[in-house]
Amino acid sequence: MSIVEEHANITSLLGQWREGDLQAEHELSKLVQQKLHQLAATYMRQERPGHTLQPTALVNEAFISLMQADVDYQDRLHFFRLAGSIMRRILVDHARARNAAKRGDGLLQITLSDHALAVDDTNSIIGLHNAMQALAKFDQQKAEILDLQFFAGLSPAQIGELYGVSGKTIERSSKLAKAFIHQAI
Asked: Which residues form the RNA polymerase sigma-70 ECF-like HTH domain (predicted)?
């Protein structure tokens, strides 16, 4: 199934699920669980060795939050935006809980690449979260683009399709957003 077909299928399934179709919910869960697990595995490979949060636990928690959210998903953009926010919130909450037992401040080192988010320690994900919140106050759309790119795993071309602009436009916005994040950290 191509990316375009997959996105159209997700949008269709979201609509059917809203209307109470349990089969659509089942199909949607299969599509989304697979995508979320791929993203979670990528995130967890970049975490410190011995990290206590496993990819499957991250996926399960994110999926449960998505399915239980009292949200009328408007389209796939809305769904992916929420998925990215939920995955970021889970990672931040986990980092905060882990840091609750620690003392002292560490250096923040975050690498934002075109395809991945590399977080060196729990302070880094919290620092990233704080910087993302500051970016959202300054430019909500650029913060959403980074959420879609790093936490929902979409490419600039896919994000551009969702927003109705070119992938190059998204790449430029992403570049400016990353510069803001690096400056904020």
From this structure: 8-184
